[in-house]
Amino acid sequence: MMAEEIERPSLTSSDFKMRLFVDTNVLIDFVEGHDEKKAKAFIELFKNLKPENIELVTSDYVLWEFYSHFRDELYIRKLVDEHNYWHLSANKECRRKIFKKVSLEEMENFGNIIKGYEQQFSESPVSIQRLIAKRIDGFSDLIEKILLSSKFSYQDSIVFVSALHTRSHVIITLDETFSSESHLQDLREALSSVPLLENLEFKKPEKFLTENDLKKEYKIWFLKQNENKQIGKVFHYYPRKKVICVECINNYTLKAKDYIYIVKFDETTFNIFIKSFRIKANNFRDPNTKKFIKEGKKVAIKLPHDFSLNGVSLTNAMVFISE
After folding, report:
1. C-beta of residue 184 within 8 angstroms of C-beta of residue 32
2. How many domains are there within the chain?
């Protein structure tokens, strides 16, 4: 009787993409030039570096909250500058949401100014995911459940669910309450059956201020996100022969004609080396007997002739199956 074949996990190109969901307060602080909480420095870093494996996203729901904030700000400024309101009374008037001191033409002008603010971050570097136009199963149900079983506000609930449905991994926020661990633990218990929730994290912009910060956070994320998908590890590397010896973990095996990823992080710089290739049958051997094999737990693989290493040692590199 043949032993049942173990299903092997695999990686796709999307598994290398760390997605950061940007909360409204970060976008507002960036546009207003406030850097006490490092929102401006955070977005400027992504504008300058354009990291290959880290994406900044937000949603149309966040954008509407952004619009609402600046519409109020522009109205308050007009009340103070042109109608001799004190700031306190201008804020009180603004809370009524009637905008009785401005015409529709002036409101349209507010809109044009706000669209200019948006252009400061839109696409470069923040991609705006339009969720309202999509039919998303469970979106409204999840918001209802959060509002009926947690301390999250309506606005925070929409941000949270948007992050889940853009398949984001981290919410970048300045909100202390939103990101408090006790707050989140209550939510995790209430929503224990929700996919992706377990892996969603909250971080502040100050965690991402330098290129080294980005690389370090990316390494932490990648190892945590993909630890259960690793097939094996390179235990020996022969650079002159361009041969790696791989030992599979658990009960996994590698096979001739598998497509695999080789992944290695530099311990000092946190730079990541990623290469994928197909194992050719005539480049696949038993490391002890040197005989060609079709499958093995410990295997020797000759790298393709065009495999560029750029001085990287592949010893201790992680090995994954490529989907």
Report:
1. no
2. 2
Dist CA 195 CA 320 (whole Å): 23
For residues 271 and 276, what is the distance between their CA atoms, to the nearest angstrom? 17
Residue 220 placed within a domain: no
* β-strand pairing of 18-22 with 170-172: parallel
Identify the CATH number of the domain in which residue 155 sits.
3.40.50.1010
Q: DSSP states of 125-161 as a string? A: TEEEE--TTS--TTHHHHHHHHHHHSS--HHHHHHHH
- Cβ atoms of 169 and 221 closer than 8 Å: yes
Global confidence as pTM:
0.90
Residue 223 lies in a domain: no
Asked if residue 155 belongs to a domain, the reply is yes
Instruction: Say if residue 190 is in the same domain as residue 305.
Output: no
Residue 161: give the domain boundaries: 13-209
pLDDT one digit per residue (tens) for the chain, 323 residues: 344 678 999 999 999 999 999 999 999 999 999 899 999 999 999 999 999 999 999 999 999 999 999 999 999 999 999 999 999 999 999 998 899 999 999 999 999 999 999 999 987 899 999 998 777 777 888 888 888 877 788 888 899 889 988 999 999 999 887 777 777 777 777 776 665 566 788 899 999 999 999 999 999 999 999 999 999 999 999 998 999 999 999 999 999 999 999 999 999 999 999 999 999 999 999 999 999 999 999 999 999 988 888 788 999 999 999 98
Domain limit, last residue, from 209, 237, 264 = 209
